[in-house]
Structure formats: C-alpha cells, structure tokens
Design goal:
The complex is a heterodimer of chains A (about 425) and B (about 325).
Chain A: H1 2-23, H2 26-44, H3 51-87, H4 90-95, H5 101-137, H6 143-149, E1 151-156, E2 169-171, E3 176-182, E4 189-194, E5 197-199, E6 207-214, E7 220-228, E8 234-239, E9 246-253, E10 261-264, E11 270-278, H7 279-307, H8 310-325, H9 327-336, H10 349-368, H11 389-417
Helix pairs in contact in A: 1-5, 2-3, 2-5, 3-5, 3-7, 3-8, 5-7, 5-11, 7-8, 7-11, 9-10
Chain B: E1 12-22, E2 28-40, E3 45-49, H1 56-63, E4 71-76, H2 84-87, E5 90-93, H3 105-114, H4 120-133, H5 149-161, E6 167-171, H6 179-194, E7 198-202, H7 206-212, E8 215-220, E9 223-229, H8 230-234, H9 249-263, H10 276-287, H11 305-308
Parallel strand pairs in B: 3-7, 3-8, 5-6, 6-7
Antiparallel strand pairs in B: 1-2, 1-4, 8-9
Helix pairs in contact in B: 3-4, 4-5
The chains are: A alpha+beta (about 425), B alpha/beta (about 325).
C-alpha cells in the first residue's frame, strides 16, 4: 500500500514536470529544433545524389546532430527541473508535503524521460519518413534498391587461428590468396565487401581482381574478374551461400600489364556481410541506445541542478556533457599525461610531478566516465551494421540503470541535505 | 514570562533552537534565531509576532523542515521536522504565492492533495468544498497566473487545508485579503482550533493575532522576548470596568456617585466603541443583503464540511 502511494506521488510529480515543460515551451522548442535538423540539414549538406549518399547524410549527419541536440536538451532540462523549482520557491511547497527527496527526484526524472521518449519517437518517425521520401524523390523508385540500401548486415571476418592477430595480406601480380569465413547461419544472400591499397601507393587506375567463392566441398558459388579501384569500398553479391557453413574466398591479382601489388592491411579490409535485419528494427535499437544515453544526461543535469542555481547548473552540466563526450581524449590524457606529442621527452622534476598528477586526475575521470562510445548508434547505423539487441540491453542497463541510479542516489542525497527555505539573495 | 501552560504533550517543542546563516565560505553571517525555547500545544492558536528580521519566518521554516537548525532540539508532531510522517499532518500557507501559474485552481488542489496519497474521489470532493469555502468556485477552471493577490491567498489557504492537517502553519494569512476576507480567515482559524487543530500564525497585523491567538511569542533579533497567554498580557488588572445597558441620565449619575463614594476615586463613564473592522463588515453586509461577493475564505459563512468534522467523507484515507 505504501509503495503504491509512493508510486502515485512520483507519478503526480512526473505529470507536473511534463506540464511545466510544455508550458515553458521547452517541448515546443525541442519539437521545432528536431524538425529543423531533420528536414533542413539535407538541404545544407549535399551528397552526390546517389541513394547511398542520401542515406548516409540522413543517418550520419542528421541523426548525429539530432543525438547531440537531444543530449543538450536533456541535460539542460535536467538542470532546470530542480534548480528552477528552488529559484522560484515552488520547491518549498513540495518540500513541506510528505515527499521523500528521492520521490521528488525520481518523479522529475520520470517526467523528463517521458518527454524524451515522446521526442525520440517523433524524431525517429520524422527521420524515417523524410528518408523514405528523399530516396523516392531521388529516383530510387525500385523497391529492391531501396531495400538493399536499408538492409542491415552483420559482418563476418576471415577465420584466424585462436589467439593470433590478423596479418596484413599482400598479393603480387599473378599470385592468389585464399580466406575462409565461418558462416554463422544459413543465408540466401551475402555481400563481400573489400577495400585494398596498391603498391605503389599512388596508383589510381583499377586493378583486375578475379574473385572465386566456393563451398567447403569445392562447389563454386561465384567466379568473376572485377576491375577494382584501389582505396575504395567495393563489393559483390553472393547468391545462395547457404550451401555451406565454411565459405572459401579466393582473390587472384589478375593484372598482366603493370606490377601493382594489392594490400589488404586490416581485418576489416575484407569481410563477408550477411543480411541480418531490416533498417527499421536497427533504427529502433539505435534510438533505444539514444534513450539510455538521454536518461544518463538528464540525471547528470538534474544532479547539477540539485547542487547549484539554474545558471550555474546549466554551465556545470554542459561542461560535464563536454567531458563525457570527450571520453576518448580523456582516456588519451590518462595514458600519456600532458605531453601527448612527445611521450619520450624528459622534463624537470616539477613538470614530471605535475604530469603524473594530471594523469592521476584523468585516470580517475576516465574510470568513472560512462562508456558512451560503446553505445554509439552512429558506429552502426550509417554503415548498415547490425546493432545487437544485447548491446541495446547493455546500454539500458549500464547507462539507464547503473549510472542513472548512482546519479539518482547522489541527487536525492544532495536534495535532502540542501536547505530549501534559505532566504533568497 | 511563560504562564499557564496547558497540561498535554506539545505538538511543537523547541529547546535552545538556533539558526546561524553562513556565507559561501561557511563563515557565520547572521544569527537569525538565538537559542529560543517554546512549545505549542494541541488545539491552540499560537502567534509569532515581531518586527521584520526578528526571526519569525526562520523559526517557521525550521518547524516545516525547510531549514536545518544550527543547534538545539526541535520536535514536530512527535518527530523530526524532516520526517515524512510529520509532514503528512502539516498544512502550510507561505507568505508569498509559489504555486504553479499554469495550473487551474482545481488542478492545484488536486495536485497538492495527490502528494498526500489521498484517494481521488475524496480529493475531488475536498477540492470542491475548499473552493466553495474560499469563494473560488467560480474560478475553479481559471489559471492561477490570472488570479489577483487576494485570490492567490485564498487558493494558497485551500491547498494548506487539503489534507485536513493537525498542524496548520500560516505565514501572514490575511495579507492581501479585504476586511471581510480577514474576518473569515480568523473565523476559519477559530473553527479549526475548536476541532482540536493546532494553528501557528506569523503576522505583522496585531489585530489578527489578538483576535485569534491564545498564546504568542514576541521575537526581536532572533530572541523570544515575551512568551505566554495573550489575555494575561493585555489584561490591566490595576483597573476595572462595569458594563451596563444604557440608563437614564439620573440613574447613571446616581450609580457614578455611589461608586465614587464607595471607592473614594473619580469614576469615568463612556460608551463602548465598535472596532472599524466590525463597522466595515456590518456596513458592507447591509449594503449587499442578497448578492454576496465571494471575497473571503468562508463564502456565505460556510466552512468546508470536512474541516468542521461534521460531514466526514467516506473515503477519508489520508
């Protein structure tokens, strides 16, 4: 019964938070900003007009800016949710009611998260509809082409011995090289994607490469010579690779006129991609990851808002947001200290001590920073790569539950310690 | 100067209560409340009086748990002021309106009531009664942002009473109300006290405090300089007054001569005076015998039934 009452109080605070956001026009501004980014950006950033470039602009730039805008809005709204209540004394009336600080905090967070969900659903729907419309307007009327662009693939890299690293592969003219791919499941289609570098490096003209694909029993699935441009992402389609669990792929450097060696420098230089899901499902998973990030940013803003007045809280939360987004740089500083450019350089004792101190600080920050880069939908969606459902779940657990819970506890503790009735200066 | 304490457990008990405000560097800036002791008992109307900056509001805010005492003991409804259980029994009217301007009067009462976990049906009925009592029924669907100062005061009072509290803390309850509204607030306070509710008032208007408070604490510079029963403070026992119905001039002369002879003192005679408040209210009520303007907190002399305890609501599950 008590839990039910507590929940109903949290819901009441959440509902009021939503109404506050709507009445302060934050919601309207957010909707307008999202619409402006999604609809306006493709007019500003021009691609080469191909369906692939339209898709890339929408998913990489529009979605990227959208995530940044939503993160800023979530942090800013979080900063205002508590601090503005304090500043205009509304918190006094809330604080004299039988509400625990954690109930006020959770109610505010719940209200803002409901707003985030609505904004994210609106953004996702508008993005998808505009993308479809743009692809259709660009002349990609063929359903197959659109389906191909908007298919999500799972990459399969060449088989290597356990515990060994990938070794770069060089194929001289007239030579060949074979790779094996462990196909995880039976698929009717697969895409072979490759990108190579020539030697000499400045060589630009296409190199004829003969590709052969076969089953483990030697049954041929594909055989063709393709004039392949170096430095470019290239691909060819395999039909019915379902016949095998172990796909063998052979590449012959078929040129005769010049002596150009082709290099496949990394594991990602050659991979077989199997169609895994549709774009809609993948987009939904990506937006789910964004929601988990927004939950963390909202909590972060709210914590700042609990400790400081609104102007200070806005500044502090934006600074924290910047630090969180600069996770890679922070980790780099944690590794190298102040002199990133010259790690081997010797310095005087005070500078060395300072460097170690800085490293210590950045090691601490790196240790407590959430792994945002692990849960970045932009690492998957623009390249048509599948976001595993487990990763979306992890994002929810790590950012939405673990980190947000820590911030909720810290925020509730701050709120309970803060004197709500202090005279205003 | 404490006199005649009622014999029961105090509902608010403060001992050595001190509040020092500090600056950013934690240096003491002002001693707002200086080791004060007082007790407020169930069913009494207790008033805090004092000039601006005397520490009245700081004391109220400590009772409400909005400020933490620097030193001393403070118990409210038998618990710490920060205890949620204690807060469930408190109603508070702040000095300045801090309600949500975009909510309507009805929504405001529903929202604050829902924070007490009151069932929706009960809440709806109470809201209606309170709006009727405060004369705001006609403005139930109007936004708070459109309210006048007097209306804000009345809706503020209504939200303070939504939980039928045992302890009601009113900071300047009559500020912004017209004389009729003031009198109705005072009537309401007395009605609540008669039901065993405890009321603590902080006010600059001495007449308000004089009419309703049984005991007062007069504060200055953070100290309680006088604390006790108001009637005993104001009673001048060195003189006495006889009140009679008006007689003829000869009869009055005979009575005065008799008293003068018996007491050996000169005797004065005058007619009792009405207060301006009484005169104003009588005049306004005569001028508007049929169409009463909803100006007060007890429109048409009606106190919300759930506050009088006469018509208890069925689902009174606060």
């Amino acid at each position: 019964m008590n839990r039910l009452k507590s929940f109903s109080k949290i819901v009441a605070v959440a509902a009021l938070t939503i109404r506050t956001a709507i009445n302060s026009r934050v919601f309207l501004i957010s909707v307008a900003t999202i619409a402006a980014v999604i609809i306006g950006l493709p007019f500003v950033i021009k691609g080469d007009g191909t369906p692939e470039s339209i898709f890339y602009i929408f998913i990489n730039y529009s979605l990227g800016i959208l995530i940044m805008v939503l993160s800023l809005l979530a942090t800013w709204c979080g900063a205002g949710a508590i601090s503005l209540e304090m500043d205009n004394r509304r918190m006094q009336l809330l604080a004299v009611k039988p509400l625990r600080p954690v109930e006020i905090w959770t109610g505010k967070l719940l209200g803002l998260m409901i707003m985030n969900v609505v904004l994210l659903v609106f953004a996702g729907t508008l993005l998808y509809a505009t993308l479809q419309w743009s692809l259709a307007s660009a002349g990609t009327s063929g359903r197959d082409l659109r389906r191909e662009i908007m298919t999500v693939y799972r990459p399969v890299t060449p088989v290597k011995a356990p515990g060994t690293a990938y070794k770069p592969v060089a194929i001289d003219p007239g030579q060949n090289r074979q790779w094996s791919f462990d196909m995880p499941e039976a698929r009717t289609k697969a895409l072979v994607k490759y990108r190579f570098f020539p030697s000499p490096f400045a060589h630009q003209s296409p190199v004829p490469l003969t590709w052969r694909a076969s089953t483990e029993k030697g049954e041929s699935l594909f055989s063709n010579t393709i004039a392949s441009s170096p430095h470019m992402n290239l691909s060819f389609r395999l039909v019915k690779p379902a016949a095998t669990r172990l796909l063998k792929l052979e590449c012959l450097n078929a040129q005769t006129s010049s002596a150009v060696t082709v290099f496949f420098p990394s594991e990602n230089s050659l991979q077989v991609e199997i169609p895994e899901s549709n774009f809609e499902t993948n987009l939904a998973r990506g937006l789910f990851m964004v929601l988990a990030r927004l939950c963390f940013f909202t909590s972060l803003g709210m914590l700042a808002g609990t400790m400081f007045s609104f102007p200070v809280a806005s500044f502090v939360s934006m600074a924290l947001l910047l630090v969180v987004f600069s996770g890679g740089f922070v980790r780099q500083l944690a590794e190298s200290g102040l002199w990133i450019a010259s790690p081997g350089q010797e310095h005087s004792l005070p500078l060395a001590v300072l460097n170690e101190a800085v490293r210590g600080v950045f090691r601490f920050i790196a240790a407590v920073l959430p792994p945002l880069d692990r849960f970045d939908p932009l690492a998957f969606l623009p390249n048509g790569l599948l976001i595993p459902i487990g990763l979306s779940g992890q994002a929810l657990l790590v950012l939405g539950v673990l980190y947000s819970s820590i911030l909720i506890v810290a925020g509730a503790l701050c709120l309970s310690r803060r004197e709500v009735g202090l005279p205003q200066s | 100067m404490e006199k005649k304490l009622p014999i029961s457990e105090p509902i608010v008990q403060a001992g050595g209560l001190t509040k020092i405000f500090r600056d950013f560097w934690h240096r003491p800036v002002v001693r707002a409340v200086n080791a004060i002791d007082f007790e407020v008992f169930p069913g009494e109307v207790f008033g805090f009086l004092g000039p601006n900056g005397s520490g009245k509001s700081t004391t109220l805010r400590m009772i409400l748990g909005l400020l933490k005492p620097t030193a001393g003991e403070l118990r409210v409804l038998g618990s710490s002021p920060h205890d949620v259980k204690a807060k469930a029994g408190i109603g508070y009217l702040p000095e300045e309106s801090c309600l949500y301007s975009f909510l309507t009067a009805s929504e405001t009462l529903m929202f604050y009531g829902s924070l007490f976990g009151i069932a929706q049906d009960t809440l709806r009925e109470r809201s209606q009664q309170l709006l009727e009592m405060t004369g705001l029924q006609y403005a139930a669907q109007r936004r708070i942002g459109e309210f006048s100062k007097g209306m804000l005061r009345r809706i503020g009072l209504a939200q303070a009473l939504i939980n039928d509290p045992d302890l009601i803390i009113l900071d300047e309850p009559t500020a912004g109300l017209d004389p009729i509204g003031c009198r109705q607030v005072k009537d309401l306070i007395l009605t609540l006290a008669a039901r065993g509710k405890t009321v603590i008032i902080s006010s600059h208007l001495l007449a308000d405090v004089e009419n309703v408070c049984r005991r007062v604490a007069i504060m200055n510079n953070g100290n309680i300089i006088v604390h006790g029963c108001l009637a005993e403070f104001l009673e001048n026992t060195s003189m006495c007054r006889f009140t009679l119905e008006t007689k003829s001039e000869d009869e009055i002369k005979a009575i005065l001569d008799f008293i003068a002879r018996q007491s050996g003192q000169k005797v004065q005679m005058d007619h009792p005076r009405k207060t301006l408040e009484q005169f104003f209210i009588e005049t306004v009520e005569k001028a508007l015998p049929t169409a009463k303007t909803p100006t007060g907190v007890a429109y048409a002399e009606k106190i919300a039934p759930f506050l009088t305890g006469k018509n208890r609501l069925k689902n009174n599950n606060v």
